[in-house]
Amino acid sequence: MLRNFLTVGGWTLVSRVLGLVRDQLLAALLGAGIAQDAFQIAFRLPNMFRRLFGEGAFNAAFVPLFTEKMTLHGASAARRFASNTMSWLAIWLAGITILGELFMPWVISFIAPGFGAGSTRFDLAVTLSRITFPYLLLICIAALLAGVLNGMHRFALAAGAYVSFNVVGIAAIILGAHVFHMPAQAASWGITLSGIVQLGLLYVATRRADMKLRLQRPVMDGDMRNVLRRLAPGLVGSGVTQINLTIDTMIATLLPAGSISWLYFADRINQLPLGVLGAAAGTTILPVLTRHHASGDREGSRETLNRAIDYAMLLTLPASFGIIALAPEIMSALFGYGRFTMQDASFAAQSLRAYAIGLPAFVLVKVLSPAFFAQGDTKTPVRIGFGILALNLALNLSLYRPLAHIGPPLASSLAAMVNFGLLWWLLHRRDAMRIAGVTMRRLLIMLGSAFIMAVLIRIAALYFIPDFMFWRGWTRIGVLGVMITSGAAIYLACLQISGVARVRDLAAARRRMQNPAP
C-alpha cells in the first residue's frame, strides 16, 4: 500500500507543482481584480466536478464494484459493466452540459450572488463559464477510465494523466498573453482542451491494459442501479470539502473585489499537500479496504486504517504547521509579481493560514471516508455531509462580515474538524477503527516535532528576513526554498531523535518499493 500511496502521491505532486506554475502566471497576468474573479468563478464549477469525480465520489461508488467484478466474474464481465456505466454517464453529463450552456446566466447568479447581473464582472463570468463548462463532461468520463485503471492496480497510469491538465493550461495562458493578448479567455479554453487531452490519454491507457471500453446502448440493470445508489449520496459524503469550498467562493462574491482571488490562491497552496496526501490516501486505501471487507478481515481493515493515518500525518502535520509559520513568505514569493501586489499577497496569506489550520482534518476525512464506502455504506457519510454543509454555511454567514476574507476559509476548517470527529467516532463505535497505542505515540511525536519546527522557522523569518516581501523575486523564491528545506531538516531531526522515522528505516522502505516482493 505504501508503494501505491507514494506512486499516486508522486504523480499528484508533479501535477500540483505544474499547477503552481500555472497559478503564478494567472496571478502575474490578471492580478486580483475583475478578470481574475470572473475566471475563478468560471473555473470553480467544472473544477469542483473534477475534484469530486476525479478524487472522490465516483471512485467510491465505481471502483469497489469494478474490483468485485474483476475478482469474482473476470475481465469480460468487468468490461461490460464499465462500458455500460460509461454510456449512462456520457448521456447524463451531455444533458447537464447542454442545460448549463443554455442557462449559464442563472447559474452564475446562483454561484456568484455578489457579482450583480449586468455588471462587467458578471458578463465576463458568463462568457468564460460557457467556455469551461464542457470540461465537466470530459473529466467525468476520464475519471471513470481512471477508476478502471485504479481497480486494476495501475495507479501510475491513472494519476499521470492528470498532469496534462496543467501542461495544457500553462501553454494556453502563455499563448493567450503573448499571442492573442486575452489571457483570461485563453486560460478558459485551456481548461476544456486539457479535458480532451486527459480523456484521450486515459482511453489509450485502458486499451493498452486490455480493457477496451466502448459506448453502447445503456441498460439499467442491477449493477447500474447499485452504482447510482452509491454515487448519489457519495457526491455529498466524499465531496463535502469541495462543496464547502464552493460555499466559500459564493460568500466571497459578497466581499470586495479581489477577495475571490485571495481565497483561490490561498486554497491552491493548501490543496498542494491536501491533493498529494489526501487524494493519494483515499485512492489507494479504498481497494485494500474493499478486499478486507469482502474477506471478513476486520483486523486487517483496522491495521490498514492505522497505516494510512500514520503515512498521511507524517507529512500533513509538518505541512500544516509550516504553512501557518511561513504563509506571508509563501504567498509573496510565489505570487507577488506583476499585477498581484504585495497587499494582495498579505491578504491571501491571512486566508491561507485559516485554511492550513484545518489541513490535517481535511486529509483525515479523505482517509476515513473510504472505510464506509468499502462496506457499501454511503448513507452514513451523506448524513454527516449534509450536517457539515449546514454547519459550514452557518459559520460562513457568521464570520464573513467580521473577518472578511479570513471568515470563509476558517469556516471550512472548523467544519472539516467536526466532519473528521464524527467519522472517527462512528468508526470507533462500530469497532472498525481502533488506533493502536504505537500509532497514537507516533502521532503525538509528529505533532510535537511539527510544532517545534514551526516555532523555529517563524523566529528565523521574523529576525533574519524582516524585509523579505520587498526583495527581488528570484531571491525571495531562493530564500523560501532554504527556509522550507531547513524546516524539513528540523522536523526529520526530531523524528530521528525520537525514533519515529530513522534514516536507515526510510532507506530500507525505499529499497522495498524499488524491489517489491513477487
From TrEMBL:
It is found in: Cell inner membrane; Cell membrane. The chain crosses the membrane at residues 89-112, 132-149, 156-180, 186-205, 311-335, 355-374, 381-400, 406-427, 443-465, 477-503. Involved in peptidoglycan biosynthesis. Transports lipid-linked peptidoglycan precursors from the inner to the outer leaflet of the cytoplasmic membrane. HAMAP family: MurJ_MviN (MF_02078). This is Probable lipid II flippase MurJ. Pathway: Cell wall biogenesis; peptidoglycan biosynthesis. It is a multi-pass membrane protein. PANTHER family: LIPID II FLIPPASE MURJ. The lineage of its organism: Bacteria, Pseudomonadati, Pseudomonadota, Alphaproteobacteria, Acetobacterales. Its main location: membrane. Belongs to the MurJ/MviN family. Keywords: Cell inner membrane, Cell membrane, Cell shape, Cell wall biogenesis/degradation, Membrane, Peptidoglycan synthesis, Transmembrane, Transmembrane helix, Transport. Pfam families: MurJ.
